[in-house]
Known about the structure:
heterodimer; A: Rna Polymerase Sigma Factor, Chain: A; Arc Repressor Mutant, subunit A; 3 domains; 10 helices; 80% helix; B: mainly alpha; 2 domains
Amino acid sequence: MEMPRVERDKEKELIARAQAGDRAAFGALVREHGDEVYTLARRLVGDPHLAADIAQEVLIRAWKALPHFRGDAALSTWLHRITVNTAWTQRRRARRHSGLPLDDFVEIAAAKGADHPEVAGEVLELRVRLRRALDSLPEPQRQVVVLKDVYDWSHAEIAEAMGISVSAAKVRLHRARARLARQLEESA
Amino acid sequence: MNVLCEVAAPFVANSAVEGSSVARPFRAHADECLKCQARHAAMTRTARELAAMSQETFIAPLDLEWRVMSALQGDLAVARSWRTPVAVSAAILSMAAAVLIWRLRPRTQS
């Protein structure tokens, strides 16, 4: 989703101030992007506590790297890349955690279909199965599915973030989707 | 179970997500096979659901900003989450308990 011009200008100003060492400005950026970073981290690793630790580390890394941020990409895109790298380097820790409380899905599905309870039930059922199927994927496969099919990254972006070739990213995605489809079919 | 359906399954899943045709070697089969069509439809729905996930945001823990800003101010004990201090405290307590047990052990006279 494209950011309105006023907000974009305001963000640019906050970035410039933060790059000059203004921590209050960086705090405002953390408030603006914290949920987004946390959401991606949570989708990548599953565990809410680990995702919170990753989000924290991402934002600390972002502060340290901010002087090198040239603004070629949007700040959110840049933060997404740091999140993927951070989640990837913490994959060993991530492997020890898995699963997501069912309440999250109930909350999301209820919000989504509040006016249509029958739809909410259907969405919830698919969401729960989908999340379980995603969780059951080996982590590298889960990450490519999340980045491509949820966040719409290109194969090249995924390859770069995960340190693999574009062909390897495509093969991994192909296998991951096949496995996801199989898991969903088995759970139906 | 049709073996061709199983071989075609990954290609059917991918074509559903990509919104493209099934790879050529399996296209004719997938066009005719009800099972493959059902799988295609199910995966199309899954792809829609995956894409919809990008619009949803989880709310970050309320203390995230505080944790980040504390870390930036060099308060590492706070910033490195609660796990490290708890682990260190547990280790110190275990050592203290071991020393206490050693001191209180029954002594035999030689």
